Fold these 2 entries.
Entry 1:
Amino acid sequence: MHLPWLRPVWRNLLADMQAGRLSHAHCICWQPELGSDRLLRQATRLLLCLQPTTKACGSCKSCLLAEAGNHPDFYSLDSVDDKVIGVDTVRDLITSLQNTANQHGAKVAWINHADRLSVTAANALLKTLEEPTVNTYFILSPRRTGLLLPTLRSRMQLHQITPPSAAEAQQWLASQLGRVLSNDEVALIQRYPHAPVSVYNWISEQKFPRDCIAELTAAWFTNAPWPQPGKADWAEWLSASELILQDLIRLKQQLPQARLRSTLLGEPAQRWLEQHNVNSDQLNQWLQSCYGIRRMLSEQSGLNGPLLLEELWSRWH
Ligand SMILES: [Zn+2]
């Protein structure tokens, strides 16, 4: 699959490597919806390859080991079940990295979901990043760079994947599928231009995400049953809640329908506002609660997202 929006990041990495000025620590966000997993894999392979050109050669011993998934100089850490990555795990990694490279090439450590590093773990890592060892590379992939400690962030080269525009995403999707898109597919990619790879997968597997805004609007304003958010999709429900509240505030301010972000908020929402006599302050307060939940869940682990969301919704009906 051809992912043109990854190209600028790849070109930078390659140019730095060829010029011999490659930084020893990189930050590439974990965004599988944009194919970041592929970028991360290719970058790791490139660093490990013993005879790289514009990509990993694919045939040296190092490439073969990496392909088989058991390269002795490749280390990876990840958060399990969104739990914090503790200091001991990071210390073990640092100790392992002090060994001589088994394949006489580079050593690469990849820390996925790096935003889950505990503060002590992040500080331990920081010390290592401040005193880099020769031919050792770190790649950190947090969900968002803003979630990392600023001191840690400042020690790395940040690579930003710029998502395609809605028009570019639509064009890309049609070319991947090799056909003209149906109206539903156009609507889907317009809804998720920042997640073209996900949209492609949904269409290929014929498994589509729930339309959270439509379901939530129906529950809120027309007495349909309230959804039950799960561990995997609570963030989408939270986004839908925020969007609806923002639109309700716009309705309260008597902005024209065309200014609303959701086309689903018509008469029923207007009627609900009148019947319940909800004012803008109240709506703003609810919106702030949504932001509060988002903040809490990004800062603390072990919180129950679905439950927090259901408690929030119970205040609205
Ligand atoms: Zn190779």
Entry 2:
Amino acid sequence: MAKSATKTEWKSRAVTRLIEAGSMTECLHCGERVKFKARERHMQVICNVYVDGNWDRVEHFHSACYEEAGSPHGDPGEWKSSRG
Ligand SMILES: [Zn+2]
């Protein structure tokens, strides 16, 4: 295997976002729809998954499910500060 010294290494990462209206994705952990609810500001975790340095797919989780799954793609960035 040849190693290229200057290659940027793209790693999978996760971010926390508000669930948007019209969201049609399914949570990878519980299999349920990541659904927007008007009166509740639910959060989702969106993961950009890289395999061998190449972007492979996007995975969606409910924020709680992501934690339950053991944060498979690391700590979601915007999540940290406010937890009761
Ligand atoms: Zn879920």
